[in-house]
């Protein structure tokens, strides 16, 4: 697990190579403000090999935040992350490791008959109740998340993950009411509070795509309500305060809703997170490579970095409440450029605010 001593020793080893605000606090831990994302890529041995090499290079260059999920590349991403940590000269105590559960994962490859696979592997053994499924592939019931966390620990080859996300809970809105989704989250948060107590996870949160960026329809979930449900869950298991400590959401030049959309009682998701002392990890920081090719001139002119990709990463790192901007690094060719973004300071608060005026 990531420790105070381990992450600060990592910071002390690398911080002189980076700009002043590159390392940021997560509780008492020191985290790099650029992290490795592992969503993209084909479920192949070749992609596994490239990821493994890239993650080792990132860890040994100043990035100590790794983000994955059990369904990414059909469980291959988790397994590669675990293998790369073992390969690296960097100790596990130096590394902040996050994963997610919610989507029913395949195992290594997409089966010929996905519905039959889901029935055989999840429904028939009683891991998932049909009534808890949304979109035929998503579940946040406590029993399922409990099982998935155990599988993730096995895939990663670790005793504990530092942050565990309930993955895209807004998917449940396709099958049930918003009130029922909040109730389901609260029940699962109780389970995760107990897994914190058992030292299987350090903290938990939710990783979302639309939930915290859109208005009161469709995929919207209220961040204040989600935080409140976590507090209720903590109280139910006898904890003084919740271990709900982070959210993940898309944030980039073209998808800045988390800063601009006042959809949570008249405030944005980032404003709520800042007020509630909830850390933010950004996904889609390069918008799957689009921002390495194009960016609005007015925004780009305000950002430091030698390449457009570096400037895009620094935009995400400039937003309030952001602890780390996640960037896909499925190839070692990308690691050096992405790491070097951290040698530049992100925008100050006034310059960042001015972009949206």
Automatic annotation (TrEMBL):
SUPFAM superfamilies the record matches: NAD(P)-linked oxidoreductase
NADP-dependent oxidoreductase domain sequence ranges: 34-344
Annotated TM spans: none
Leader peptide range in chain numbering: none
Superkingdom of this protein's organism: Archaea
Name this polypeptide is given: Aldo/keto reductase
Organism: Halapricum hydrolyticum
